[in-house]
Design goal:
8-stranded mixed beta sheet; ion channel; Rossmann fold; alpha/beta; 17% strand; 1022 residues; 5-stranded parallel beta sheet; 41% helix
């Protein structure tokens, strides 16, 4: 049915696309400020919302604004029965002329309502649905240990899953009832119901168990049905256990009474993401059924891929029950996409049909990669052996299967299975068996806690039951919450491994087998574990082996190829890649667009050489970007790549942060930073050239250091060393001579004290460094042409106010303004080398510039024949040129590898010599004016030497004070203290320090002898 309305309304054009979305959607972007807001922009995208027509008896909005109808009356009646007040107002959704989309209304409710209102909405929906359910009698309370406990089970008997889980659950019930260790005298009974409908009708059938005194329900089979039924189960406190509803968005927060007894699809998608990353692929195509199971599973896959820096390039949705024509149309679109990695998250119903169509379209050939979720392995396990045509359709496919560890229990069940049925054993049968045992253990624990199996009517439902809805039969499980806790606390070993739930209600230790379909069956190429990723060993063997990273066995891919597919090709639509090339007015050696449209230059030759090294053909055409008169902006070229105007950008495109946010770049093929070029003049010879290596400050500090070190050595050596004694004039001459002779390591005076030797060693090391640096700098000054300029580098330009030239259309302007804070009024755009030359010659006084800032690669070309200009200062950024591609383009990676290969084999240098090698100007042998050596380069050495001198003097002083105290008699010292002033005592100490050590010792010895004689004479007199 087509929707053909096309009119202009208050909201603009009302017209529907083929997918029933309104054309030309748009949003205002508002910023709340103060008491209002302001518009900061707009967002546009061609998408819309769906609409359905409804009868006015269902819901109607009158001209006076009154809203009435069946739905409204039911809603008001339900709210009036609530035990609390719910203030509300009815708001019309839609224009009143065209029927609005209920899906959009539901989306708005979901994003705006509280969880309580969300639950009430679903519960009211179920009350209406339950009108079709047969009614039963009054509330019934069963004893604490009833003879029979009923469990409901809802699935389709003749489905792929249904025909194995019925056998498995019957076997489990038989084993539970035969086991004396569980349930004691209570018999477990499963009431199985065959669901024969899909969609809406499948929702009604599970509701029959809501009024049949079942303590739990196993099922439903489909995620779509489980999602709706779980809302009702939450209200009735009846646990829902499902091993086939694997929708990853069914969380315990939203569905507290829903329990998944198999692995969440979130882990399966994580396994697929690890496989994609393992083989180095970056993009995949996802084919899925457009229902909750498919849509949410693929959303989880997209999240997991993004964590690996990969993505889904195309989400190909099919109707839940597609026709062969639907599948054919979709696969044709998939074949036209670039990615050849196809993930199929399909239904059991149409999955094999998709592979049949793919084979007919030639999509099961070499180069393709097909990854199927566990639906395919379930089909192979259950219906094996498959027909020959079917198995041929899936050759080379990789599929996953829920991993169940080997055990004696499992082996015994496998042997028993062949006696129970001729149908193959799938993992769903194992999980069905374990689910029954899990419930049995939970029931046993529930009874041990004193729980009773009792049901009561909800008073709200009872009041509504007197009307037309007849809802009396729906009863609430009184012990539902306690029973739910018992289920979540189960911890047992089953056929599928350990059955225990995590805090988010997932089974512990999720794992998958990775299978490769080969011949008439499949081979296991590895395993995936949540804690370790891909491995070629099962979990029980990995416990005794150190983990050695991700690994899989070799794979036979579609087309019987064993070579790992590249994973992408160019779109098979005959279109050549449009490569944007900046049409610049300057430096034709880099890139040039001729009058006949031919594009040449260094950048173009590098790109063509790299493309020729790729192992596949790349059809492309070079398209000039710009008018040829004004230099275009490379940033704008990169932006056009992101919008699809160009498929890549080739040229002198500098890799900067702003551009890397918009596109992917290859490995840089030219290293080029920003430099400053300015007019220079040659320095003439000078008689004082030997003073140039050091700055005046450096000369001053060096000279002072010589004198200070000489004085320190004299202090340390004067008392012990005769070479530093004598008349004052001689001592001064000796000190000066010693200090400056250390410059040439030719001092003849020897140091005898340990402190003096330490200071001298440190000082000689400082002299060695200074001497070597001076010699190297002076050699450069005398042998290399020196050029001088008032501009010393970018620092000079930052401090003065002279105009600065920059290349028009370059990122240099933004860098100078935003990073270096140079005012934009000082910047002068220049288009060509000729304009560079003229602006530099004119200078600031004649309307020119003081200097030009550009990339080194350009400046080297500019200076090749202009000796009157030169590079001043140092290169102050580090950038490179690269080729730009759209984000996540696999071609960027391959071209990067080709560029590295060009560098390794020498082709890159040959291309560079062809275009960029020019005869250098005779004065370009050196940078501008060799930098003079400044104090900041040596201050560390001077600090170390100064600290050594201070410490040596301090230690020396302490030692002298100590010796002075030891060599002077106590009595004499006391007499001196009594008779002398402090200045006299200091003078005495200085005299002691000045006195030669041998003389001091001799004097001290004589004084002690005199004291002894005097003491002996006094004793005789007495």
């Amino acid at each position: 049915m087509r929707l053909i309305v096309d009119r202009i309304g208050l909201t603009a054009r009302i017209k529907f696309t083929r997918d029933r979305n309104l054309v030309n959607p748009a949003f205002d972007l508002l910023n709340v400020i103060g008491t209002g807001y302001r518009t900061i922009g707009y967002w546009h995208l061609r998408s819309g919302v769906a609409n359905r027509y409804k009868s006015e008896e269902v819901v109607s909005v009158k001209s006076n604004g009154r809203i009435s109808g069946f739905c409204v009356d039911v809603f008001i009646a339900a709210l009036n029965l609530l035990p609390y007040a719910v203030p509300f107002e009815l708001l019309a959704f839609g224009s009143g002329h065209d029927n609005p989309s209920n899906s959009e209304l539901v989306r708005l409710i979901r994003t705006g309502e509280s969880p309580e209102i969300e639950k009430m909405k679903w519960f009211l929906l179920m009350l209406i649905i339950c009108n079709a359910v047969p009614l039963q009698g009054l509330t019934k309370i069963v004893s604490a240990r009833p003879q029979v406990v009923n469990i409901g089970s809802v699935f389709t008997f003749n489905s792929l899953i249904g025909k194995v889980i019925k056998v498995a659950m019957d076997a489990a019930v038989e084993d539970v009832n035969a086991s004396p260790s569980i349930l004691n005298t209570t018999t477990l009974r499963i009431i199985m119901h065959d669901t024969k409908y899909n969609g809406f009708m499948s929702i009604m059938e599970p509701l029959q168990f809501m009024e049949s005194e079942t303590v739990a329900i196993i099922g439903p089979q489909r995620s779509t049905t489980a999602r709706v039924v779980a809302h009702v189960a939450t209200e009735l406190k009846i646990p829902i256990l499902s091993f086939s509803a694997t929708d990853p968005t069914m969380s315990p927060l939203q569905f507290p009474f829903f329990i998944r007894t198999s692995q969440n699809d979130l882990f399966q998608m994580a396994a697929i993401a690890d496989i994609v990353q393992f083989y180095g692929w970056r993009e995949v195509v996802a084919i899925y059924g457009d229902d909750d199971y498919g849509r949410n599973g693929v959303a989880a896959l997209g999240d997991r891929l993004s964590e690996k820096r990969c993505r889904i390039s195309y989400k190909a949705a099919l109707p839940p029950a597609p026709t062969r024509e639907n599948i054919t149309d979709l696969l044709i679109k998939v074949a036209l996409s670039e990615s050849r990695i196809i993930v199929v998250h399909a239904s059991f119903i149409w999955g094999l049909e998709l592979f049949n169509v793919a084979r007919n379209l030639g999509m099961m050939s070499t180069g393709y990669v097909w990854i199927a979720t566990n639906w395919l392995s379930t089909i192979i396990d259950t219906d094996s052996p498959l027909p020959l045509d079917t198995i041929n359709n899936i050759q080379g496919v990789i599929t996953l299967r829920l991993h169940t560890p080997n055990s004696i229990m499992k082996q015994n069940f496998v042997q028993r299975w062949h006696n129970l049925t001729h149908v193959g054993l799938s993992t769903y049968a194992l999980y069905a068996y374990d689910t029954v045992w899990l419930l049995a253990q939970a029931i046993d624990d529930f009874f041990k806690k004193g729980g009773n199996v009792s049901f009561s009517k909800n008073p709200i439902i009872s009041e509504l039951g007197g009307g037309n809805l007849h809802l009396d039969a729906l009863k609430v499980f009184d012990g539902g919450k306690i029973f739910l806790e018992s289920i979540l606390q189960v911890d047992r070993i089953g056929l599928t491994g350990r059955m225990k739930f995590t805090s988010d209600r997932n089974l512990v230790n999720p794992a998958f087998d990775v299978l490769n379909v080969i011949g008439t069956g499949y081979t296991t190429i590895g395993y995936w574990f949540n804690h370790s990723g891909l491995s070629v060993m099962p979990a029980d063997e990995m416990e005794n082996t150190s983990f050695s990273g991700q690994k899989l066995h070799s794979v036979v891919w579609p087309g019987h190829s064993i070579k790992i597919p590249r994973g992408w090709v160019f779109s098979n639509n005959g279109r050549h890649l449009r490569i944007g090339v900046p049409n610049r007015y300057r430096f034709e050696e880099v890139v040039s667009v001729k009058s006949n449209g031919m594009i040449t230059g260094f950048c173009v030759d590098v790109f063509i050489a790299a493309i020729n090294l790729l192992p596949y053909a790349v059809p492309f055409e070079l398209v000039a970007f710009g008018n040829g008169h004004d230099n275009p902006s490379n940033s704008e070229l990169v932006r056009l790549i992101t919008t699809g105007v160009y498929d890549a950008g080739v040229g002198d495109i500098t890799i900067i942060t702003e551009r890397t946010k918009m596109a992917d770049f290859t490995q840089p093929y030219v290293e080029s930073g920003l430099v400053v070029v300015a007019p220079v003049r040659k320095l003439g010879s000078s008689a004082m050239a030997f003073l140039r290596p050091f700055t005046p400050q450096m000369w001053l500090i060096a000279a002072a250091s010589f004198l200070i070190v000489g004085a320190v050595i004299w202090c340390l050596e004067h008392k012990h060393n005769d070479e530093f004694r004598g008349p004052p004039r001689r001592q001064v001459i000796t000190t000066f001579w010693f200090s400056f002779s250390t410059l040439f390591f030719s001092h003849r005076e020897t140091t005898t004290s340990n402190l003096g030797r330490i200071v001298l060693i440190i000082w000689l090391f400082v002299v060695l460094i200074i001497n070597s640096s001076y010699t190297a700098s002076l050699t450069s000054i005398l042998t290399v042409h020196q050029l001088s300029s008032p501009i010393k580098g970018i620092e000079t330009l930052q401090t003065n106010h002279d105009p600065i030239g920059y290349p028009q259309g370059s990122f240099v302007r933004d860098y100078l303004v935003h990073e270096l804070n140079i005012h934009v009024s000082r910047l002068v755009p220049l288009r060509s080398p000729e304009e560079y030359d003229k602006a530099l010659r004119d200078g600031p006084g004649k309307g020119g510039v003081a200097a030009v800032v550009d990339e080194r690669a350009y400046i080297e070309l500019f200076l090749s024949n202009r000796c009157e200009f030169g590079i001043v200062g140092q290169e102050f950024t580090k950038n490179g040129w690269g080729f730009a591609f759209p984000r996540n383009s696999p071609l960027a990676v391959d071209v990067s590898a080709a560029i590295l290969q060009l560098s390794e084999n020498g082709d890159m240098q040959r291309i560079r010599d062809k275009w960029l090698l020019r005869k250098a100007c005779s004065l370009q042998g050196a940078e501008i004016e060799v930098d003079r050596l400044e104090l900041k380069s040596f201050w560390g050495l001077f600090v170390v030497c100064g600290v050594a001198c201070v410490l040596a003097l301090a230690v020396y002083t302490v030692l002298m004070i100590r010796q002075f105290g030891q060599q002077c008699p106590e009595e004499a010292e006391g007499s001196i203290r009594r008779r002398s002033s402090p200045s006299a005592r200091i003078h005495s100490f200085l005299s002691f320090v000045k006195e030669k050590e041998e003389d001091a010792k001799a004097r001290s010895s004589r004084e002690r002898q005199l004291e002894d004689i005097s003491a002996n004479g006094s004793s005789r007199c007495n």
